[in-house]
Automatic annotation (TrEMBL):
Protein name per UniProt: DUF5996 family protein
Pfam families registered for this protein in UniProt: DUF5996
Amino acid sequence: MELFPPVPYPGWSDTLATVHRFAQVVGRVRLLASPRRNHWWNVPFHLSGRGITTRPMGLDPTFTIDLDLLDHRVDVSTVAGRRASFGIVGRSVADFHGELQTALAAVGVHGVDIGSARPFDLPDSDRPFAQDTEHATYDPAAVTRYWQVLSQVDVVLEEFAGRFSGKTSPVHHFWHTFDLAVTRFSDRVVRPADGADAVTREAYSREVVSSGFWFGDPTFPEPAFYSYTAPEPAGLADAPLPEGATWLERGGSHLAVLPYDAARAADDPRAAVLAFLEAAYLAGATRAGWDVEGLACRDGITDPLLRG
């Protein structure tokens, strides 16, 4: 399989809208059943060999929800061996929401109430998942391709993560924004903006450079790699970026963007993505006064004997 196969946003936008909401339904379970960690690191999904997973959560019982994006099923299983499963092709969000609650009850999970859950930061955030019969488009081939691209990007982001020895998030899949991200921290405490919500306050309580990939949305209808620095230092958008990348003004700040198709067109797509991520990181870190040399790491090795 080629590295970074085509995944044009217009070709699967309706399916993406459905799957995004499926993920948010499962994400609400993860939010309620997992022990809280700094910067909400407990909430995102991780990739598995067949799709995406919540990882184990809960204690009575301990259970996991896996989205198998090859067979297009949801598996809910406990460490005691109880399991419930249902197919997701042809289901509306309301159907998915109801089936997931039934599956949770079937394996003995009773303390997680998502009955009135609603989408987060989506146009239909006022409508409960239980009432959403609108979003029901599901193209299995497109969903499998999404997971395959996600898996390839995951490996490249893991390589990028290994070049930094400071505090770093896992490479994880956020269900609210539907992106794959890894974040580097300076550990400099940040005073939150007046009126910032609880999610934002915790996510950005320290200075960060965050990098990742998303599949596009109506405001930016194409997949792309991205990077931003928060808080944004002066002059960030003046920093040069590799060919094909640009600074995009978005929400009062600047996002470094490398379109997915620009990376695909490069002679070495992997190297092009890594060069972009490194340039965007250096643009933010140097202007924010980070110890760039001291935090650098070669090939994931910090042991001076191994580094030679």
